[in-house]
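wait is this the right file?? whatever heres the structure
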């Protein structure tokens, strides 16, 4: 499951954003332009248009995660999206949803795929989910949780593989992500993590083949 947040945001603190003058000062230093692009949502009165309940994957069910478990952003305009991160919940679907709705959990992924292939989206892809325990990977990744346990091969059903592969293919297509193991990775491969998911029973060869096939079909 998503790691507890260890990539806490840089806080503006004493920084003053001078909206009218389009300038920002931190002491005597000027706040860099690229940093301002990541902080648009902190400016008074600025809000990117969003449709309540909208999903990024057709057929997904929207169930909102707690706002404490992700950071509002404007990806890929402020952070490029260049990887998909595969997780396993280490529990049932309902318990994962409950955890991601809990503000004290301090972690969540964008999607959860159930054993029967049903997809629930809990965070928009444009936002940064606290999923991997690594700030850079959070900012540049889309996280997909899978119902089950890393130590149980039976957790990973045909329906789950097929549905998750279509989801990943869609993400890769939207953001021009190569369909390879450098860009579609497991949580265990995130630097600094202590997680082992998706574990030894996740069939990477099968999964990547399904993703490639789904992406080709969509093209």
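ok assuming it is, sequence goes like this
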């Amino acid at each position: 499951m998503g790691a507890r947040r260890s990539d806490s945001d840089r806080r503006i603190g004493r920084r003053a954003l001078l909206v009218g003058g389009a300038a920002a000062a931190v002491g005597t230093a000027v706040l860099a332009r690229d940093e301002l692009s990541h902080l648009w949502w902190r400016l008074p009165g600025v809000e990117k248009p969003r449709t309540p309940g909208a999903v990024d994957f057709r057929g997904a069910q929207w169930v909102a995660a707690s706002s404490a478990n992700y950071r509002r952003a404007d990806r890929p305009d402020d952070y490029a999206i260049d990887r998909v991160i595969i997780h396993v919940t280490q529990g049932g679907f309902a318990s994962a949803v409950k955890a991601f709705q809990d503000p004290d959990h301090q972690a969540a992924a964008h999607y959860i795929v159930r054993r029967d292939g049903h997809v629930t989206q809990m965070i928009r892809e444009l936002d940064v989910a606290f999923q991997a325990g690594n700030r850079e990977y959070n900012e540049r990744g889309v996280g997909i949780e899978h119902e089950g346990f890393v130590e149980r091969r039976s957790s990973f059903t045909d329906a789950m593989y097929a549905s998750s592969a279509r989801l990943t293919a869609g993400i890769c297509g939207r953001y021009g992500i190569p369909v390879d193991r450098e860009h579609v990775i497991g949580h265990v491969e995130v630097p600094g993590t202590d997680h082992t998911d998706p574990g030894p029973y996740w069939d990477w060869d099968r999964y990547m083949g399904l993703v490639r096939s789904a992406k080709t079909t969509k093209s």
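The radius of gyration is 18 Å. so i think its the right one actually
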